[in-house]
Amino acid sequence: MKIILLCGGSGKRLWPLSNSVRSKQFLKVLKDQNGESESMIQRIWKQLKEVDLAKDTIIVSSEIYIEQIYHQLEQEIEVVIEPEKRDTFPAIALGTMYFLEKKQVSEDDLICVIPVDPYVDIDFFQKLIEMASLFNNFNPNVFLMGIKPISPSQQYGYIIPENQSASIKEVKTFREKPTEQLAKTYIAQGGLWNSGTFMFRAKHMQNFLSKHQLPNRYVEIVECYNLLPNKSYDYVVLEQENKIYCSEFSGLWQDLGTWEVLSEHFDANVFGNASLSTSCCNTHVMNELDIPIHVIGINDSIVVASPDGILISDKKQSNEVKNSVLQMHRPMVEERRWGWYKVLDYTKIANEEEVLTKRICIFKEKNLSYQYHHHRSEVWTILKGTGLFILNNEMITVGPGDVLKIPPGDYHAIKAIEELEIIEVQQGNYLIEEDIIRLYTDWEAIEANYEKVNDFNYSVT
């Protein structure tokens, strides 16, 4: 069995802690067995390793998440990058054809798809292994893992089986997120929550693509990714498919997609510079800001403050945040393989010039890539730590108080000897993260090549 771990969700329901580049699967809001903070992707990867499935797993994700994946997991993992951010059907097609053509798996091999964000115990993965062993007995087109409902939840789709009593059930139909009353009806009919975890033979996806005249080779899919339906696998395949079976899982399974569910796993009620009065009950506060938050007399609520915004919500209604945050502005905080940054200020001045100010932290022995920009100049002021700074073909040691001026088009990089904190002021007419042309990422490659560029004047003030 080969596994596609889907890691492309945006996590809008966990705003303002998550944003378009710091998605929910990377938030270190869980605790491991030793009480250390861990993220959803770290937890599930650790579990895959425990049952010896990690070696057969690829991660399918967007390019914007690559640095965070490698920062939080091992460097040797395989990540298949989506050419653009789309729904689950294109991602699964991409991952399947990668297995077939790049990994040379058999077309009869089982491909198992797992979302990155379920909160489960190890028996969830033991159930997957059991399902794989039973696949030949029923030979379904798709084999689903259904979750035994613990409530008439409106947050999940429902799988309605033909036969309630069978241990392996043939699927009669699917029902999308229903009203509470309909959910009760579906449960009475033996309905199971749709976990988003399922398996099929690799040739099933290959045949599906050919049948619908879609790109069916890995290279073609990469080049023509926009031609694949930008829809979920459920909608494109499952709702049109026959001979679908499901196996019921009655162990721990939670979708950590809302503040209500996620807060159940917090080991404290207050995080950051905040306090709760004794009159508060079942309320959690998370504060990433430097200013204090005091909550008095509020029950069953979540209060979250980050550089991206502030959320105050009744827990049961917290799912509505995905509809309330109508326009996601520039992410104000982002984690990278080398550290993190926070946006401190953004303004427009005369002649369409923009000014963006960031606070940047580069971890010890980490570095920014050797890069340049077309549309902006930068000024770096070193606040803390020491590092090696390269501008074009010159390397110097820098420390607190140094001011580094980087004109547009100049090649530059920096490595932290000790943890560095920098105030960066960008100025130009087009301040976007995409205006970064990276020449080298690895510091050894940077040191080996930086002297080959042309001479430029440079000064430290």
The gyration radius over C-alpha positions equals 25 Å
The CATH superfamily of the largest domain is identified as Spore Coat Polysaccharide Biosynthesis Protein SpsA, Chain A
Main beta-sheet strand count, sense and barrel state: 6 strands, antiparallel
**What is the total tally of β strands?**
30
Number of domains: 3
- pLDDT < 50 stretches: 455-461
CATH class of the largest domain: Alpha Beta
Structure description:
The chain is an alpha+beta fold. The strands form eight sheets. It has a six-stranded antiparallel sheet with strand order 20-21-22-29-24-27. Strands 8-11-9-10-12 form a five-stranded mixed beta barrel. A hairpin with a 2-residue loop joins strand 20 (333-336) and strand 21 (339-348). Helix 3 (88-101) crosses helix 6. The termini are far apart.
Secondary-structure map:
Blueprint: E1 2-6, E2 30-31, E3 37-38, H1 40-50, E4 57-62, H2 66-72, E5 79-82, H3 88-101, E6 110-115, E7 118-120, H4 123-138, E8 142-147, E9 158-161, E10 168-175, H5 180-188, E11 192-201, H6 202-211, H7 218-223, H8 233-236, E12 244-249, E13 253-255, H9 259-262, E14 270-271, E15 274-276, E16 284-287, E17 293-295, E18 301-306, E19 309-314, H10 321-324, E20 333-336, E21 339-348, E22 354-362, E23 370-372, E24 376-384, E25 387-391, E26 394-398, E27 403-406, E28 412-416, E29 420-428, E30 437-440, H11 443-449
Parallel strand pairs: 1-4, 1-6, 4-5, 8-12, 14-16, 15-17, 16-18
Antiparallel strand pairs: 2-3, 6-11, 7-13, 8-11, 9-10, 9-11, 10-12, 18-19, 20-21, 21-22, 22-29, 23-30, 24-27, 24-29, 25-26, 25-28
